[in-house]
Amino acid sequence: LPAVAAAVGASPVVPETIEFHDIAGLVRGAAQGEGLGNRFLAAIRETDAICHVVRAHSDQGVPHPHGGVDPEADIEAVEAELILADLEQAEGRLARVAKQAGSGDAEAVAERDWLQDVVEALGGGSAARNVPAPHAAPDAPRRLQALTWKPVLFVANVDESADEVPTPIAAHAAGAGAVAVAIPARLEAELAELEPEEAAEMRDDLGLSEPGLERLIRSAYDLLGLVTFLTAHEGAEARARSLPRGGTAWDAAGRVHSDIQAGFVRAEVIPWRELVEAGGYAAARERGVLRTEGREYVVADGDVITIRH
């Protein structure tokens, strides 16, 4: 983003953001109100995805509440509470929808049948996401708001010498259709206290390609299916904006402003690296690398887009 801003003379630079909410307090029995109970579960319900930090380091100076380090058991404990909470939610929703289905409404019938399958799956210890949404009631999952329908990112908090996700966590993530990333949190905390140049030098010495926070953010974007496009103009701001993968130029216009989307005429598009190499829009036009696209153009990650409206 700063390179793009410099190439076109834009200012200031406005990055896109992704919010991580630290939700603490889950203990066994949370679904029945233990610990922070429903407060904890309600906080998760407000998120787009679940980022589950799993202890996988062996630092004896950090006690484990259950005595020993067992990533699989910790994952299963959390998932069990989410499943129990979802089961109660699904049973309540099923009772309400079943009454609506009695009128013969096709969508209500489809949702009722789906909820019955969800209740059965949850009762057997399986996540709601394992029951595909019904074609006749595609909004049923949104109305249920099941915790186990949300995508999951497992963050393995590993030892400083580790650089890969431990096998048990990786296997569990693969089986659940989740994403997993390894981060040595203690090391990252120490690096965060250093000057950027010192931190970069130490990462090189340790063989770490990038900061753990950047890996986490990229993994979260992948999990949520997002790409980033940029808008930048001389004398104006250079801004990064997220868009669901597969989104079009018309969708991107809506992320900028609804009026721009309504009056969409065309989009001028160029990958950010090509714009930086050209040194600006004028040179990019001379090189023939600045393209004109219609509203159905599928935005690629890193596109710089100017909407004409």
Structure description:
It is a single chain. This protein is of the alpha/beta class and 309 residues long. It has 13 helices and nine strands. Helix 6 links the parallel strand 3 and strand 4. Helix 1 packs across helix 12 and helix 3 (71-101) runs antiparallel to helix 4 (106-123). The chain is flat. The mean pLDDT is 89.
Summarize the structure.
This protein has 13 helices and 9 strands. The chain is 45% helix and 15% strand. Strand 3 (152-157), helix 6 (167-176) and strand 4 form a beta-alpha-beta unit.
Average the pLDDT over all residues and give the rounded result.
89
SS strand fraction? 15-25%
Q: In terms of per-residue confidence, which ranges show pLDDT below 50 for 5 or more consecutive residues?
A: none
The major beta sheet can be summarized as: 3 strands, mixed
Helicity level: 40-55%
**CA radius of gyration:** 24 Å
- The span between the termini is 24 Å
Number of helical stretches of at least 4 residues = 13
The SSE string, one letter per element, is: HEHEHHHEHEHHHEEHHEHHEE
How would you describe the shape?
flat
What's the β-strand tally?
Answer: 9
Widest sheet: strand ordering:
1-6-5
Helix-strand category: alpha/beta
